[in-house]
Amino acid sequence: MKAIALTRYLPIDDSNSLIDVDLEKPVPKARDLLVEVRAIAVNPVDTKVRAPKDQVEPTPRILGWDAAGIVLDVGSEVSLFRPGDAVFYAGDLTRQGCNSQMQLVDERIVGHKPSSLDFAQAAALPLTAITAYEALFDRLGLDPDGENGQPSLLIVGGAGGVGSIAIQLAKIAKLNVVATASRPESVQWVTELGADHVVNHREPLRPQLEAIGLRHLDFIALFNDTDGHWNAATDLIRPQGTIVTIVENKRPLSQDVMKAKSAKLAWEFMFTRSMFQTNDMEQQHRLLHRIAEWVDQGGLRSTVNRVISPISADNLREAHRLIETGRSIGKIVLEGWPLAY
Question: Cys-Cys link to 157, which of 57, 163, 208, 326 (CB 3.0-4.6 A)?
């Protein structure tokens, strides 16, 4: 089967950073699905895993954690899917990724593809949808059916992949959403997704928020630069409020203000369930089912913003390069395998 892999961790402008390879077709076991991959999306995690370091892989390593495709075969213990099902999923950081024509993935972290979306549109959703859903509803404890009243939520990084989904989920949950964006095109993007207010994260946040009547936020989601936004977030979070972040810090984060406010910090990492094989791992299957329902009912839209074809090492390197600029809006998707390299 065709795949795109790495054996060394190199800068993206090196033609050997991601290479076209041919590998053996994998065989499903236990709760595995063998999926024929039709489309893949690229996320910051791909670029972070691929980032240069002194390490050599003895066998080709396949990255990629966003895909949509068709189930070709199933393992002996599979009960949720059957061959022919159209699926979408983010996968497992500890296994081979989706940048291949066929991939093994545990059924418990897979959902049926939204019927109203094509494969490219569907591939843009899983990783960001799982991350945003878990951040809002598992880590912050908000109710997806809107039973929390109308609390205020600040989303830092509103135009990014996770932020773009989080805005929509927060509006489904009836929150008062403030999203950050700094460029005209990103301001327009988050506004179209449903943000009630937009503030510029490159300017001091407090005066902008006070101008719209918000002295404190009930909840804050940091989807970009935890270090850079930490002091503003701790200043703005209400006493006994909660901050959730998905971005690892590089420096110590002062806890003095958090302690004084009895505020909470929650971490979200969507690979936790699959990495540790948690007892509630199947929750991601159910979560993706709910995402698909919202999409098919018109309450949630795919955030794909660019589709590149075909799926090849050259095009995947270009997608990584665009992600590494830090200026991409929405999701970048690759679809369709070439007949030959």
Answer: 163
